[in-house]
Amino acid sequence: MKKLYSQKLFCRLLLNRNSILFGFIMTIAIIWENPGYGQQSLKSVSINLKEVKLSEALNEINRKTNNQVLFKVEEVSKETKLITVNLKDASALRCVEACLDGTGFMCSTQGDVIVVQPKKSTTQPQQQIKHILKGYVTDIAEKPLEGVAVIVKGSTKGVATDSNGYYEIDIPRYCIIVFSCLGKKSLEVTIRGEREQNIILEEEAAEVGEVVVTGVFNKAKESYTGAVTTITAREIQAFRGQNLVQTLKNIDPAINITIDNSVGSNPNAVPQITMRGNSSLPMSVTEYNEGVKTSMNTPLIIMDGFEISLTRLMDYNDEDIESINVLKDASATAIYGSRGANGVIVLISKTPQAGKLRINAQAGLTLEMPDLTSYDLLNASELLTLQNRVGLYNDDHHGVNDYKQEAYEMRLKDILEGVNTDWLHYPVRTGFSNKYNIRMEGGSKEFRWGTSVAYNQTEGAMKGSQRNNFNGAVTLSYTYRNVIFKNQLSVGINKGVESPFGSFSTFANTMPYYRPYDEDGSLIKNFMGLYYTYTYSRVPNPLYDATLNTKDESRYTELINNFSIEWNIIPELKMRAQLGISKKTTESDYFLPANHSTFNTYRSGTDYEYFRKGLYTYGTGNATNYDGELTLSYSKTFSGKHQLYAGLDYFIQNNDSHTYSFTVEGFPAESKPFLGNALQYELEGIPLGTQSTTRSVGLTGNVNYTFDNRYYVDFSYRVDGSSQFGIKNKFAPFWSSGVGWNLHREKFLKSSNLINSLRLKASYGQTGSQQFSAYQALQTYQYFAGDKYLNRTGAYLMAIGNEKLRWQTTVQFNIGTEISILNSRLNVMFDYYIKKTSDLLSSKDLPLSTGYSSYIENIGAVRNSGFEASMNGYIFRNTQKGGLIWMLGAKLAYNKNEITELSEAIKAQTEAYKAQDVDVSTLFYEGYAQNSIWAVRSLGIDPSTGNELFQDKDGNITETWHPSAKIYCGISDPSYNGNLSSMLRYKNFTLNITFGCHWGGQVYNQTLINKVEVTINTIGEQNVDRRVLSDRWSKPGDITFFKAFSNNATRATSRFVMDDNVFELQSASLQYKIDEAAFLKRYNMQNITFSVNMSDLFYFSSVKRERGTSYPFARRAGVSISFMF
Amino acid sequence: MKKIFLYGFTALLLLATSCNKWLEVKPDNQKTTKELFSTYSGFCDALNGCYIKLKNQSIYGEKLTMSNIESMAQLWRVDQTSRPADYELMNFDYTGDNAKSAIRNIYAGLYNVIAQANMIINNIESRGSVIPEASTRAMIEGEAYAIRAFCHFDVLRLFGQLPKNATVQVSLPYAESVSSESLPHYYDYTQFVAKIEADLEKAELLLKDNDPIFKYTFTYLNDFVVSGDIVIDDFLGYRQNRFNYWAVKALLARFYLYTGITTKAYTIAKSIINAKGVDGNALITLSGATDILADYLACPSECMMMLNAYSIMDYSPNILGAGYPPIRTNHLVITQSQLNELFEDQSPASNNRYNDVWDRSTMDANGTIYPVLKKYYYDTDVLVSDYINLTKRQVIPLIRLSEMYLIVMETTADLNEANSLWMAYQLSHAVLPTQDAFASLDEVKTAVFNEYRREFYGEGQMFYTYKRTGATSMLWRTITVNESDYIVPLPDTEYNPNI
Q: Which of A28, A771, B47, B361 is deepest in the core (most CB within 10 A)?
């Protein structure tokens, strides 16, 4: 046991998971290497013997090699042959072999010793002694286990597995082999002449040696009090989605991706993610948006100690990732202080392994198939009928009626000729996405290297839309005595191209009675608008614009270099210094040629406007980040039972960024999209730019004390200084504390057969969030860009400042348990949390008479509480190679958001709104969630009039919509997010399936309003859903869900609040792995893996609406192949 | 305990960082209020910001001069599909979504300008000492007060109750500070009117003798920057484009006329007509004849106050159809017969407005003639010197001398005086009066009323004229106009914090 401790401590001192593995191997090597490779360490000797007895010869060698030759004198003295040998600088073994040549004796090595014994026959003894056993050792998840000790029982003979889990050992024909590894159950295997043995080691209950990588300090999982989800490279492979963010969500439902019905499966859309509910509100005031990141609730993302953006995470080469740790509670995130309130995602990239060159190559192909099943649009004749029915072709104004009637006749004629265009299918396609990755690594123990190159082209379901990523990385590490130098360089080159077809909605909206091509088959440029004769009422043909030489793309190149030095000053004390630099350049192009429909209104008659046709907007940006970190950690075990860990971390960061963009115009027709072809800068146009600099420093202290591996406490404290904190409070403190108890180490459970592991832990702490504009507390003036009065520009007050603004803080309480029972067949994890954010910042509505519509205020406090639970169990667990393994898992995350406290001002304001019937965008009430949906209770559509009937605040039935009658109708976030997964492995097949679901929330179905409960004017402008014709009220007596036709938009009504329950197949993959076939050896390959991946295959929702309005959703199916050399 | 940690760690941090200043980062394109108002130039920029906001299309750049407000006065042919907001406003359908959003924009725009002016007013007291000249300081403050009063006055004219015989009472917010805490107070009609009056008087007092117009003529101040007079501060130029002393006086006359204090309106308007400039000549003269001849169709030379809108040719042709043949449904135009009706009691042939300010040759795609208002149109290919663009072509009149003539004619008790002013007035429009004199003051009033429509077409005055007189009918409107039609409801988001 004591040995185990010291090894664990040794591991803990090292910085990340990989180096721990490395450290572990070294340890193992120290123990086991000598016997296996002992003869190589024998001294070289020189002997010169002439006609001597064998016994004398062997004695002579013994004399020179410090008694390494073993023989029985009685046996050897019987040998009559005299020996003559003359060797210089030969190994002892060589010398002995030379002496034995032609005699009745043979030799073999056992450890350092050369054994001489009589030959039994001429060949057999050789075979008997050289019995080689080989094979692979993996864990349950088939992940190769490195550093597993493979020992012949009862001897000191043994080897350790390499990084592929491969071992080769020379053993007696009949023996017992013991496989053992820290954190795994030891396994004894009886060998009866077998030459190959593949082994699966099960987890030991008390996962000694498992480490939580927090990105700052590394903590042994057994004494870690934080709530964390660890995702392995293997899980990433098994549950792959369109990008890494999707994959994460497939694995851990606690990572919540906000579903955006408009962007669909656009590969260029960056999703919004949150963990454990929203604790910040988006502030609608556009002036504040500068410097505020797209989403207030995005977790912090750290890659190898360096902060990266969500976009970078999305584009990252997932083959380069060793593991991902998702830190959730205060105990885990307090070390990130002001940045940690939204949770932290820590990525660890692969560290090269020592040994001979290893190559890992993958190639994959994925199909993206558009899913248009939710669309049900009117056909041409139905639409014309509808338009006519709502009176769009009649007018009593200035004789316009004639035009309208003429337009009607024209269209009717076309329809009778058979025009009925299905516009939806023009912009979509099946996208073919490719992915290639090659990774090489190798090196000696001192110097190791690893390099990877990956190319990933995602083709979206809309024609021309794609996202290309090139990722390259080089990692070098050099160990000199007790110092490890490491440098990681990674480059990401990205190009996102938007479809030339533009928004999908344009096609969904285009009238089916327009024909895209004329009789000659050439594209029609413009259609006649609603009223045929009006020259300027032209509707551009969206297909025409798509054929033009347009360009809409953005690119970035990001270089990250991370250099670190780790110095093990003494075994207990370690120092680590890291310097990271990243540089990102961005570029965007937006080009419309002169013949694009945008310029239809430009008059060709005047030269002036003629030459203005065609535009090009070019944007460029640059972001440079530096960060430096110095970590000191001390770890020691006192008198066997007290373990102390202390860490101190100093962190400094500087981020600079700027962007510029400008527009030029006037391109000759058919011009190439090249900036230099422009005739002039945009008329009245000005260059735009943004600039921001943020700086922060932080000092973190962490102490962890464990008693007897049973009880442990954890305390972290951090002070952060940031340029974003405002003038007065540049420094802010953050802290956390946690306790834990390993019940399974108590006497009363130690002998339990049922419970293998039972751990309880609790933590409490305070963290912050920096995702706010630096200047929002200040009242600032901005200069008008591109505007003037007389000969002078001017400045205007951007917004009403709030000097009393306080930073919002989040305190979080977490209690959790991890249970493993029935010989680890069933594992359960449960965390309950309460997260309270006080001084919640929100934009508060103001009456317009103040000059502004809102300002930023601390409106109160919000509480997120909920639980995360996961359970997985083995239905079958045959750990023999090729045995049947079936594991089922379920994860569930529940979150409840509630405003617990509101300022008196907000309450008074809400009362005033109610009393005076004021309509505002956001309403806050104590006891309700931030994202509550407030709408007027609808009593349905009055069958006699077709108008909607409402219940007013006094309970009366009315036709008038009063904002004061708004009631709580639901919450726009699902309460429950869950997934179900299944992993089935038999022989070389592995099948993984995950289903996702969410329920307990509502949605305000605006898409349905936009497509069905449309205004009359809308029907004149775009195609609509079939239900407009069939389900709208049209005559007294109609009992319908949708109201009568009118030109007044539908206001917030409970009629459109719908339960949002979704069940979907997130991903399914089937893998076939070849690792034993003969041809593998021939090509020096270790294994080949084939896999088929599918994602988003089906989707059931209780909300019926068109999915993917600007970009359709897609189903994905792909194949990939992976080679390992 | 907590504090010990905080101080300890902070001290350690500072030790390591060595410099607290490293954390001080300031934005490049913004200034705090304190920074802005720490220089004279900052005050100038803030004041100029007010004017930039005033000429925004959401208020006086378009909606309160050319489109929305004139639709409410029934002056345009409005197409329902392409101009839904104007259509709803024309029909006084204030509950329509489009009308609501239009009203909201106007209301928000006016109060935003007021907030900008209030920032100057609230800061000049404590920080105004950075302005070197006391007279300049008074001028800036005076203009800010004038802007605040001007906007509030139009809030009253648009959202307020009828100034006479009101059966519906309306309280309105008068904003005097910029704060999220003390929201603007609501005042009833009498109090609100008193507030405007007080602000206008304050502005008048501040501008009196301090306005550069007390030293130089309008003409000189319009041109001196270009002609290179380096003796005067640049910021003192272009007084016709700013709320100068006389603009405030004219505003007072308009205000008294609207609120029914006709004697004061009369006195002030008359004093403006008779005022002498520093060169001893008339301060300002009717310029209808000369300006229109020179193709300055908005009569800039007689403006007491006009906005400079340098981008007017970028947007006004799209709205009013001038220079944009053929006429589309979204253009605000009238029919030929309407134009004839407009000038019915005139001798159209010689009226320079009928002949020159209206283009009577423009047609839609079908060949139907729709006369368009050319007031805001100029030929961009004709290059002129800078000050001509700033003060003659790219302008939107807010108050003109013509209005002072009409005020005096309407309020005078002396028929002869009315007749003689009418003569001068008509001559400036190249009209030979068909009758030498009005027979009664009532006839004068009718003529003046119609003249408001003709003179200020596209300048947003006619709706208020109807409202001021409580008219129950409007030209080209077939149905009666009710009191409620005159009272535009406040946006849905507004509420009275005092109740």
A: B47
